[in-house]
Specification:
The protein is mainly alpha-helical and 385 residues long. It folds into 2 domains: 27-224 and 336-358, Citrate Synthase, domain 1; 231-330, Cytochrome p450-Terp, domain 2 (Orthogonal Bundle). It is 58% helix and 3% strand. The chain contains 17 helices and 3 strands. Strands 1-2-3 form a 3-stranded antiparallel sheet. β2 and β3 (41-42) form a beta hairpin. The chain is globular, with a radius of gyration of 23 Å. The mean pLDDT is 94.
């Protein structure tokens, strides 16, 4: 490329770090002050006082529900939680070693064919579809897990909340109150996080006026990547690899010296502690004591202390993935379900963003700057040496 071409080159924002693609009233991530806000409500207040069902209403409707609205939502979600026998048969036909995220993606795509409102573009129809998606995600994930273990899927219990019933459908037993509450809070904390990669993927698909299911399938495919939804599994693997608290500091120092990555640390937005990590850290402590696995929590604490100390100049702190994997492990959930659980929660945020975007839709069509040859000479095949 010549000097003139280089001087005329546009600014390339790789990763779209500083690009705004829409206005939103759904979620605010304040990376400097370590705040996460849904529709004006601080995540710490929701984690203390709310539940996942109410959080779904807040994200989609933009306000707190009345008692009547709340009761109607819980009833509607409970009634929509069951999946059809056809979908169960599809889950049974999946290969035993199929990644659960791939199964979820396939199941949602398949499920769309049986929704009579799939192609209804009205806001009210999309709100109903969003409710059905939120309700069925936990049942799909739990049913597939039971099937691959050679067990019978458990039907949803409409008397239980989504979080408690999800744990029951996965493990086969009703969880104790502390475990049920921690699962509920984990779903609240993962419900939305502004314009992350999977939310943006959903918006790109939705901008073409594809149906809501298609947009959510795009989001699931994006969330699968280890740089987005899979970091909590990697963080837990690190803790298990370290093995003993006395090994933790040396692990961090050796990893950093070899320019390795400590999973569960750093964030493109936060310049301080991720508020979700602080909440889950306390729950991880409580669960580790309850399960008699204090050493595992101590390993996590030392990994955090040493990593923050060594990377202080770079403002690297633990993110939600660092403690969420530990919490799920202590709840008895298998590692390859961690990212599907993320989706169980995040589908509420995805649908909220898509519905909001459709209020003022514009096809997403960015530019790329061409740097290849411009005057290549075509040579017919039989003349090429």
């Amino acid at each position: 490329m010549g000097l003139a071409a280089k001087m005329d080159a546009p600014r390339i924002d790789r990763g779209l770090d500083d690009i705004y693609v829409k206005e939103t009233s759904i979620c605010l991530v304040d990376g400097d002050r370590g705040r996460l806000v849904y529709r004006g409500f601080d995540i710490r207040d929701l984690a203390q006082h709310s539940n996942f069902e109410e959080t779904v209403f807040i994200l989609v409707h933009g306000r707190l529900p009345t008692r009547e609205e709340y009761d109607m939502l819980r009833k509607g979600l409970a009634e929509s939680r069951a999946i059809t026998p056809d979908l169960v048969r599809l889950l049974r036909r999946m290969p035993p070693d199929a990644p659960p995220m791939d199964v979820l993606r396939t199941a949602v795509s398949y499920m769309s064919n049986f929704d009579p409102e799939r192609d209804d573009p009205t806001r009210t129809a999309n709100m109903r579809k969003a409710q059905r998606l939120v309700a069925k995600f936990p049942t799909i994930v739990a049913a597939h897990h039971r099937i691959r273990e050679g067990k019978r899927p458990l039907a949803p219990n409409p008397r239980l909340g989504i979080a408690e019933d999800f744990l029951r459908m996965v493990t086969g037993k009703r969880p104790d109150p502390l475990s049920a509450r921690i699962m509920d809070v984990a779903l609240i904390l993962h419900a939305d996080h502004s314009m992350n990669a999977s939310a943006f993927a959903a918006i790109v698909a939705a901008s073409t006026l594809a149906d809501l299911y298609s947009a959510i399938v795009a989001a699931i495919a994006t969330l699968k990547g280890p740089l987005h939804g899979g970091a909590n599994e990697a963080a837990l693997r690190t803790m298990l690899l370290v093995g003993k608290p006395e090994n933790a500091e040396r692990y961090v120092l050796d990893t950093l010296a070899n320019r390795g990555k400590i999973f569960g640390f750093g964030h493109r937005v936060y310049r301080t502690y991720d508020p979700r990590a602080l909440i889950l850290r306390e729950y991880a402590r409580q669960l580790s004591e309850k399960r008699g696995q204090e050493d595992l929590f101590r390993i996590a604490e030392i990994l955090q202390e040493v990593t923050v100390r060594e990377l202080k100049a770079k403002q690297i702190y633990p993110n939600v993935d660092f403690y969420s994997g530990l919490v799920y492990h202590l709840l008895g959930l298998p590692m390859d379900l961690f990212t599907p659980i993320f989706a169980v929660s995040r589908v509420s945020g995805w649908t909220a963003h898509v519905i909001e975007y459709w209020d003022d839709n514009r096809l997403v069509r960015p530019l790329d700057y061409y740097v290849g040859p411009r005057d290549a000479v075509y040579v017919p095949l039989d003349q090429r040496s």
